[in-house]
Amino acid sequence: MNGLREQRGAAIELSRVSKAYGSFKALDDISLQIQPGEFMTLLGPSGSGKTTTLNVVAGFTEVSSGTLQIGGSNVVGVPAHKRNIGVVFQHYALFPHMTVGRNVAYPLRLRGVGKAELETRVRRALDMVKMADFAYRYPSELSGGQQQRVALARSIVFDPPLLLMDEPLGALDKKLREWLQLEIKRIHRELGTTFVYVTHDQEEALVLSDRIAVFNRGRIEQIGTGHDLYDAPETLFVGRFIGDSTVLRGAARSDGSSTALDVAGETVTVPRRHRDTDRPVMLLRPEKLVMRKPGVDRSDNENRLSGTVSEAIYLGSGSKYEVLLRDGSTGIVRSSLTDQSFAIGDAVELCFRGADAKLLADDSTADTTLT
Amino acid sequence: MAMHPFTRVLLGLSCLLVAVWLIAPTLVVVPMSFNQNKSLAFPPQGFSWQWYSNFTTNPEWSTSFLNSLKVATIVAILATVLGTLAAFGLDRMRARTAGLLRMLLLTPMVVPGVVLAIGIYAVYLDAQLVGTMTGFVLAHTILALPFVLIAVQASLEVFDKRLETAAASLGAGRLATFRTVTLPLIAPGILSGLLFAFVTSFDEIIVSLFITSPYLKTLPVQIFTSITRDADPTVAAVGTILLCVTTILIGGGLLLLGRERRSGV
Ligand SMILES: Nc1ncnc2c1ncn2[C@@H]1O[C@H](COP(=O)(O)OP(=O)(O)OP(=O)(O)O)[C@@H](O)[C@H]1O
Ligand SMILES: [Mg+2]
């Protein structure tokens, strides 16, 4: 299986790629290596450069500087129609004057594939996206989800070693999106093609990807598995973009082995020195925080912050609470069903082990770019 | 919106009135073409086909008709090719340059026909194009071009250019993309442009009167000279034939445009 993957998928290497529009840098020195057969997701807020990156790889946009290799050969300057890359667009882009069957056959016709082979390959591609019964319909006679499946079939029918998808599910409702995510995952597994997928939805990225590249303002903040990004974010932006988090800010004191933060009069300590910056922040994942009534069970070496429950959200499997801390910031806690439950307005304490907190450099842009 | 039945009847009646007002003068030629006497009096007397047969047998009429057909056909093709190319150029140009150029290309529609005719006549005298086929074709192409431009531009506006990007990603070069995606999708616009160009040339009279010669007449010129010379009801017969043909052509053109509007959304 793995051997097959190596064969079918192309490796991609973007090295120090920049793209400028006038003085504005849509891509600012991007380097990204994608393994053959890998499912790589480009994740980031609107305007962060995801589509631009995809367009550069597809050949729709020329780079301002840097190199781009696909399958080991340099493709800078090669026009899009000679790159042999499948592309799925958010807006489907099916040809309205052709039936589903002719749409899917289109790339094969261009390649001069004979009639018999063409028919079997079109059928196979339509089977793969479960649209074989619709071959004689026109795109206008299909729903959005069906159109996108046809578009997917059309982009894989010519066996490209690389498939690019730019928010392909962006226009669909949640249920359909979740189902199609699983379909895309299955197709990726069956084909062994390299997939590069663009989304601004972090949950979608986590469901689909082998690795995720997090974009922010034309730069890549971090590349890693979903697990890496959630457990070991390297920047505050990544920590905030992936999953829920509580961010603590305050005056920092560092001694030989630990760092203390003064959060509105309450001191929290992490048994680690921080290196990069003189303005560290602490980032905590919801499941690392425990919420208690104030003054209960004062076991030592635990950090605690007092606050007030400002929002209680019932999630079925448990609850999620938002807690207004003394410095005005919001803490996010998740609790399971068996835990004690709290109501809005309750005074509480948030407790955590110092070792569970991440120390990151403060980044004032991290909050603003998220919205 | 609910409408009072009386209002509806009133509206319908006024529509009918306007329609009759517009069409009646044109329809007058139909009964006149079957007149038994050589007169253009209305109402006509009796019934006969003689003016129709005169149209087909009299060489003055039949050659001018063939001339018009020839000119209009060449003009339609020439104007369609040039107008389509121009529409494409304007579409892919910087917006401000395109706006200026478009205005320039549409001037033949705005400039009074007589002014244009005088200009063309003056140039043709020098170039010895008066009374030549080339002269007619060139002059009519100038007049027909704006119609093609407008029709093709309208269909390019609703054409989704992202489809061309998609075609490129599937392996189609510029030419293949144009042939398989762009052209089929804007074909209705081109076709209606072609029809309008044909009709524009076929019934053009003002410029034609200036550049005509006794040896080369188009049908409208022949009609005009005939009617100023004597009261020959052949004019009415020709008018009736033209009425039928242009109605069919223009109707077809409008139908194509309408279909494209609907599918373009
Ligand atoms: N042709 C262009 N001319 C000028 N600026 C452009 C052009 N194309 C993109 N940009 C700019 O480059 C930046 C990155 O755009 P890009 O489309 O890559 O964002 P994105 O990450 O795909 O965002 P979204 O999630 O909204 O699609 C944006 O600020 C955008 O305005
Ligand atoms: Mg985008």
From TrEMBL, chain A:
Its EC number is 7.6.2.11. Keywords: ATP-binding, Cell membrane, Membrane, Nucleotide-binding, Translocase, Transport. It holds the Pfam family TOBE_2. One of its GO terms (cellular component) is ATP-binding cassette (ABC) transporter complex. Residues 12-242 form the ABC transporter domain. Signal peptide: none annotated. It catalyses: ATP + H2O + polyamine-[polyamine-binding protein]Side 1 = ADP + phosphate + polyamineSide 2 + [polyamine-binding protein]Side 1. The keyword Membrane applies. One of its GO terms (molecular function) is ABC-type putrescine transporter activity. The complex is composed of two ATP-binding proteins (PotA), two transmembrane proteins (PotB and PotC) and a solute-binding protein (PotD). Part of the ABC transporter complex PotABCD involved in spermidine/putrescine import. Responsible for energy coupling to the transport system. Belongs to the ABC transporter superfamily. Spermidine/putrescine importer (TC 3.A.1.11.1) family. This is Spermidine/putrescine import ATP-binding protein PotA.
Automatic annotation (TrEMBL), chain B:
GO terms for biological process: transmembrane transport. The chain crosses the membrane at residues 65-88, 100-124, 130-152, 236-257. This is ABC transporter permease. GO terms for cellular component: plasma membrane. The keyword Transferase does not apply. Gene3D superfamilies: MetI-like. It is found in: Cell inner membrane; Cell membrane. It comes from Tianweitania sediminis. Keywords: Cell inner membrane, Cell membrane, Membrane, Transmembrane, Transmembrane helix, Transport. Belongs to the binding-protein-dependent transport system permease family.
